[in-house]
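[Automated response] Your request has been received and processed.

Submitted sequence:
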Amino acid sequence: MPAMDTQNLRQIIVDGNAKTLVEDAKTFGTELQKAGLTKSQIRGIFGTVRQIDAAWTDAGDAAQSMRKVLLLKPRLAYQSARENKVRPLADVLSDAIDLVAQIQEPIERRKRFGHFVDLFEAILAYHTAAGGR
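Generated structure:
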């Protein structure tokens, strides 16, 4: 299964391009469903992302929140090693995390993380809409 285009991922995370987000999330979410990825495999990671999003409210929480975001990468690697169907999602999310982490300015980093959450939420929504269980 093809991963999300790197240039499109950059447009989504760095630039906040909503049109590209919707188009790519629809294609990718549907591909994940066809590959047999289950909603519970996605939701396990998504729940953690939502907790980070809720906790990342001010500058004091920013460093701790970013630490938790970075720690998603080994968790994604572990899950994709356990279940190969998770690998395409893990690869896209890891690349997106790198785009969030590469900027040091706190406001821009938080904005990029918001775009990451939007992308993940859209992938989950389109996976479910395609019949993902």
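Summary generated for your ticket: Helices lie at 6-13, 18-34, 39-55, 59-70, 72-82, 87-101, 106-129. The chain has seven helices and no strands.
If you did not submit this request, please reply to this message.
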